[in-house]
Design a protein that fits this description.
Number of helices: 23
Distance between the termini: 52 Å
Order of helices and strands: HHHHHHHHHHHHHHHHHHHHHHH
Strand content: under 5%
Helix content: over 70%
Structural class: mainly alpha
Length: about 500
């Protein structure tokens, strides 16, 4: 009985119920048979994703099994209809943006292997200074900048021991327990929150970004690396600054001054790294080249030999360079065996989300749902969906939440587009309603289960869950306001 009450088990059987209900009943008026069957599969996947009834990537494989089996795609004129149907369903699992993320992951692995991220982090902290408030701000800035390019989990794991070491030094130089506790809690939460916030700034920073970019591209709107950064980097910057101010002045007021012992500790950590190695220099060169290429691709595309350059192509070139460039030992900068650390499950999750979204559109389900939705002010709609996603993602996977809700937003945008006099597709509206879902999905700060960075710092046992919830609520509200305003008023100027 206890097992049956487990949320995962409940989600498992609820999902099956939805699927069998659609199999055994007739579709509603105006919805095709295939659209009704897609509804069942979508509700099955949403239930399993929301409760993590089975691993998220496994759920993402369901379209490959069920869509061809249920006859979602009709290829009666093809010589091999079953194969054609499976090919149609499988194509999104090799979407170009999957390779964008793959290349970014490989580059991140190289940065971690040579310890370049730690060197950069310590150097920046030494430059910022040791005043308690600014030290926390420095850790947050470093965390955000590194998480723009490598996984926020790795960033947090790298910075946590450094933060704890610095907290230990500060503890020995202050006699006020409450002041120290505020400093330590603000520092650790700041590292986690900044890692999440930094991931919002680039397409490769976190999974939801790639999911929404891929789904929007399926509608015909190409979103470049620099376009995303033009929107998301200011959002990250505002949230980072607001988060730092709230943590150090409102939630956990910091009254500790800087001291020489803190600087000595940071210097000691930096000196332990030794002089920069040849491998670090080579990885740094590839990283800088890749980042600049992503941000200037529109300019590079004007050159004859670079006409075919794409963001995903740049990512794969970077990955190839990592493997081809010789290390000091004579092998590549990383070996293929290192790729076992890659989050392959996230790449499969992208494919499942895209395949599900395509079926929603192709089966007519999207158009049918769009006809049921009443008109609503766009800004109010953005505010409501952002608030919903922010608090929902506290309990669910941000990638799965994005994969579930972005197609719904595309449906809403399409429904509004159908009202245009010329019947054209309002791609700007698609972006304006869909992108906030991904950005909001990254604004999960209240609970340890919300994101890996939260769980990592909570595992240090240096603060209570109540303190995390208190701080997280403040940052959540900031996220809702900032994402809504930028999505409503800045995004239309970019896309």
């Amino acid at each position: 009985m206890k097992n049956l009450s487990n949320p995962k088990n409940i989600g498992f059987f609820v999902g099956l119920f939805f699927l069998f209900f659609t199999l055994l009943t007739s579709p509603p008026i105006g919805l095709s048979e295939s659209g009704w069957l897609v509804t069942g599969v979508v509700l099955l996947m949403a239930s399993w994703w929301a409760t993590e009834a089975i691993p998220l990537p496994v759920t993402a494989l369901i379209p490959l099994a069920l869509f061809p089996l249920l006859g979602i795609y009709d290829f009666s004129d093809a010589s091999n209809p079953a194969k054609s149907a499976f090919t149609k369903v499988a194509a999104p699992y090799a979407h170009p943006n999957v390779f964008l993320f793959l290349g970014g992951f490989i580059l991140a692995l190289a940065i971690e292997k040579v310890n370049l991220h730690k060197r950069i982090a310590l150097k920046m902290l030494l430059l910022i200074g040791t005043d308690a408030k600014y030290l926390i701000g420095g850790f947050m800035l470093v965390s955000a900048l590194i998480s723009m390019w490598i996984m926020n989990t790795s960033t947090t794991l790298m910075l946590l021991p450094i933060g704890l070491a610095i907290a230990g030094v500060v503890r020995n130089t202050t006699s006020l327990d409450n002041d120290f506790r505020n400093f330590q809690t603000a520092l650790l939460l700041g590292i986690a929150y900044a890692a999440t916030i930094g991931g919002m700034a680039t397409p490769i920073g976190t999974g939801p970004n790639i999911v929404v970019i891929s789904l929007i591209q399926e509608q015909g709107l190409e979103i470049s690396f620099d376009q995303w950064m033009l929107l998301a980097t200011p959002i990250s910057a505002v949230m980072l600054l607001a988060g730092w101010f709230l943590l150090t002045n409102i939630i956990f007021p910091i009254k500790i001054s800087g001291n020489d012992e803190t600087r000595k500790s940071l210097n000691s950590m930096y000196e332990e790294l030794g002089s920069i190695s040849t491998d670090e220099r080579r990885v740094l060169f590839i990283f800088i080249f890749t980042a600049l290429a992503w941000m200037t691709r529109d300019v590079l595309d004007n050159f004859f030999l670079l006409k075919g350059l794409t963001d995903y192509g740049i990512a794969i070139i970077a990955a190839l360079a990592i493997f081809i460039t010789r290390s000091s030992t004579g092998s590549g900068l990383i070996e293929w065996s290192v790729t076992s650390k890659l989050p392959w499950g996230i790449l499969i999750l992208f494919g499942g989300g895209l395949s599900m979204a395509n079926a929603i559109m192709d089966s007519g389900l999207g158009k049918w749902i769009g006809g049921l939705i009443p008109d609503i002010n766009a800004v109010l709609l953005i505010l409501l969906i952002v608030a919903l996603i922010v608090f929902l993602t506290e309990l669910t996977s941000n990638q799965a939440t994005t994969a579930t809700f972005v197609p719904i937003m595309i449906i809403l945008a399409t429904a509004e587009s159908n009202l245009l006099p010329d019947g054209s597709n309002n791609l700007g509206l698609v972006a304006q309603l869909a992108i906030p879902v991904a950005l909001a999905a990254s604004c999960a700060f209240m609970l340890p289960v919300a994101t890996p960075p939260n769980a990592i710092v909570y595992g240090s046992e240096k603060f209570t869950i109540g303190e995390m919830m208190k701080a997280g609520l403040y940052i959540n509200i900031v996220g809702i306001i900032v994402v809504t305003l930028f999505s409503a008023y800045v995004l239309p100027l970019i896309f």
